Amino acid sequence: MNASRFAIGIDLGTTHTALAALDVSLASAAPAVLGVPQLVARGTLDRNELLPSFIYFGHASEGSLALPWDAERSYAVGAYARIRGAESPGRVVASAKSWLCHPTLDRRSALLPLAAPEDIEKISPVEASFRYLDHLAEAWSFDHDGAALGGEDVILTVPASFDAAARDLTVEAAYAAGLENLTLLEEPQAALYAWIEAQGARAHELLQPGDLVLVIDIGGGTTDFSAIAVLDDAGKVELRRVAVGDHILLGGDNMDLALAHGVAEKLGRDGKTLDRWQMSALGFACRAAKEQLFSEAGRASVPVVVPGRGSDLLGGALRSELTRDEVERSLVDGFFPNVDAAARPATRARAGLTQLGLPYAADAAVTRHLAGFLARQKQATAGLPGFSGAGGLLRPTAVLFNGGVVKASALRERLLQNLNAWLAADGAAPVRVLAGEDPDLAVARGAAYYGLVRRGGGLRIRGGTARAYYVGIESPAPAVPGVEPPIVALCVAPFGIEEGTEAELPPQQLGVVVGEPVQFRFFGSSTRRDDPAGLELERWAAGELEELSPIEITLPAEGRRAGDVVPVHVRASVTPVGTLLIEAVPLEPLAPDERWKVELSVRSSPAD
Amino acid sequence: MNEPLPSFGTRFALAWRILFDAGLAARFLKAGEPEAPQLPEPEPIEAAKPAPEPVASRAEQPPSLDPALQLLGLLQREGRFVDFVKQELSSFGDAEIGAAARVVHEGCRRALAEHLTIAPIRGEREGAQVTLDAGYEVSSVKLTGNVKGSAPYRGVLRHRGWRAESIQLPRAVGDHDARVLAPAEIEL
Fold first, then answer.
1. What range defines the domain where residue A481 resides?
2. What global pTM score does this model have?
3. ipTM surpassing 0.85, yes or no?
4. Residues A593, A518 contacting (CB under 8 angstroms)
5. Helix (H, G, I), strand (E, B), or coil: what is residue A378?
6. A607 occurs within a structural domain
7. Inter-chain contact B100–A317, Cβ cutoff 8 Å?
8. Which end of chain B is more exposed for a tag (fewer CB within 10 A), N or C?
9. Residues of chain A contacting B49 with CB distance shorter than 8 Å
10. What is the domain count for chain A?
11. Burial A383-418 (b: 16+ CB within 10 A, else e)
């Protein structure tokens, strides 16, 4: 069925990208992480398992940024690009992935780097993702005598919270990089696959029907929650992903920055100011100091030194210290405060959206986001055999941690302490911890392992789409001045459609004008599990439906008169790759099986 | 025997193992003919754990200087090593030197950890009584004090010794001059 020799897992992260390969022709195959060749300084090539997700556009003054496979390259991807980000930020693209799920702007428009000087041709978030993947593809060919990465089976991970449009755009970037045998996989699922792979046969003993695994994935830039239920399918264990959280732009980088600002403030009180370069060096120094404090329980403080920028190391250095008390206050209590189960993250009104910027989480408290997730998803296991009726919150029985942040045991303990207190108040038992593997590389490894699982063999996680999708139709109600016309949400894609299957065709018709693009408002819901295709929602609870970028249908004029209104049905399916496909099916087709693709999130609504 | 000849990667890995495994080298010599001892196959994905490139063999670089310059450049980049040893220390107090030493120590330690595997040669605690049997690896042990007679030797371990078990250095790419350990910086 499949001729490729390797199953390739790619973790395309906000701050780091990694690739693991599993040779499926070997009986005892295990995923191995590629040491990615990349520039680490000018004219210096090194290998690292992590490829920082940064692009640096070189200036004419420095000549080419040559790679062994391209002597003329004018940009760099990886470690050198990240370093240049602190020295010359206007020439560096960072966090492209966060831009990829920006709800209101055209993610294909060339806008990065935001503050680029004139000699740089800006690129879109999609193109940035393409360049990271392209670098991996080139590195792979370099290491494998020119063999194309696109010839292998590639499993590319995306956050579980990515909406349908962000998935589409990720696939577009991957196709551009030649990755044709592509499948998408949610990152928390990949983390669980890595755990299953590492446990081997023991996984079946450690996961029993009735278990609910909560995956808490806190990376450099984002926080992602998923819940995966363990079911009994006629005597066989079956895994089903039952809930995913919102897209939360909050991660380890925010935390290190918070510590660095605290130390910078202390230095400021002594009359010492830091430039941007020193601030970046301080960030790295604080991260190292934090890790030391977390790993040595007895230490009260760790010195933090920012070296001078000149060649005189002594004399120019700024010296301060990071105390345990500061870490407790700004990091543990700041990002992981003790809250009760009723706590909810603060939300920001969507007023600032005209401003160009990333929609960072308004509330920095991971524990409040977690409490909100568990409460909103309390119905996620309702009706599943082996799960008791819903309490006040979703009740996980086990936790798998993933992402660089949770390497710190103090933070894991704090999360568990809160989670177990909420569960106890709800009358449930405390959770077990599934001991994870290297949390920086687990997602890439798990994705490669999934390539093996897909060929038949091993536990597979099912679940389908994590959202239901709705098209907004203005209802024919009399207009009231000052009140937005009421809108009806027509469900076109129910929750949980599996790869390669189609939703039912809803009976409602939409009118589409031939020859010109017609936009519809588009909504998603991660909690409405039982809405069938064709259901018309007139009202919904606050937060139940989230408005996404609009969708657009353009009917080609062939065979029809431009300007005519053609009635269509809207049908949804999930492609084998794992993206949502919405198609318009005309009531009176001119050809058998006539249908048109509906574009997800083409551009932001006109600004006027 | 119609087996395919070993690939370059296999041969390189083999050379490497012989270099750092005296026992293996001895067996190799005893075999008396160039038939290679049976070795396990190399890693399934050779490139994923790349064998260090024989940088010096690349024709366009000066044969012996490049790895040394790469190592110095690495230590300077990660740990400001050249800055530190080039600066005159006499006018500074211990506190200032200590602060700078943290930067150098942390950075150089990380750089070495990522590029070399350095392991002690002897596993015993320093100060412990040790016995060296005949046939010990002469190149990895230095005898001091009252050195005479023949093995077995009994003595006190004064230093555990270090061995670089693997090394993988960055390499120059493009027309970059590797002698530039750190470029001059001019802020505009």
1. 468-599
2. 0.84
3. no
4. no
5. coil
6. no
7. yes
8. N
9. 32, 35
10. 4
11. eeeebeebbebbbbbbbbbbbbbbbbebbbebbbeb
